[in-house]
Amino acid sequence: MKKCFVFFLGFVLLSLPLMTAHAQEGFNGPGSATQSTPKTISEAKKLPDDAWVVLRGKITRALGDEKYEFRDDTGTITVEIDQKVWRGLSVDEKILVEIQGEVDRDLMSVEIDVKKITILSNK
User: Fold this and answer.
1) Whether residues 12 and 62 fall in one domain
2) Are 58 and 21 in contact (CB under 8 A)?
3) What is the residue-averaged pLDDT of the chain?
4) Does 93 score more than 70 pLDDT?
5) What CATH number is associated with residue 62?
6) How many CB atoms lie within 10 A of CB 28?
7) CA dist., res. 74 & res. 44, Å (int)
8) 90 contact partners, CB below 8 Å, separation of at least 6
9) CB atoms closer than 10 angstroms to residue 69
């Protein structure tokens, strides 16, 4: 009985790294390899609803109701940034930022629901 238990325990311990690696292959959210690769706005507009995206650019103007215009070299997109996401940061149209969030695709529009914002350069 002890030999069976030791064999089973060894099997589980040896196969655990393989199961963990396989479980993470399809994950595209925070912490995944695809999550950390910045995309352009033109690429983000083609992604499906709820896809995780990282964008680098500038917030060029406030649109009201926690919505802002975000711009990079490929165009503009509306982003929604909740008050809690700002974490006391202050930016203007000259500051380069990185935003991370989810694509919010509706019938007629595509926006980004921002979950994290980071200042990359101050002007």
Assistant:
1) no
2) no
3) 82
4) yes
5) 2.40.50.200
6) 15
7) 10
8) none
9) 15
pLDDT the model gives residue 121:
86
- pLDDT more than 90, % of the chain: 65
What is d(CA 44, CA 79) in angstroms, rounded to the nearest whole number?
Answer: 12
- The answer to whether 113 and 72 are in contact (CB under 8 A) is no
CA distance 108 to 110: 7
Q: What percent of the chain lies above the pLDDT cut of 70?
A: 70
**Positive/negative CA dihedral, 77, 29, 86, 89:** negative
Co-location of 68 and 15 in the same domain = no
Distance CA 52, CA 45 (A): 12
The Cα–Cα gap between 95 and 111 comes to 21
Looking at residue 27, its pLDDT comes to 55
- CA angle in degrees (0–180, nearest 5) for 95-53-38: 60
Given a cut of 80, is residue 109 above it in pLDDT?
yes
Residue 34 clears pLDDT 70, i.e. is over it: no
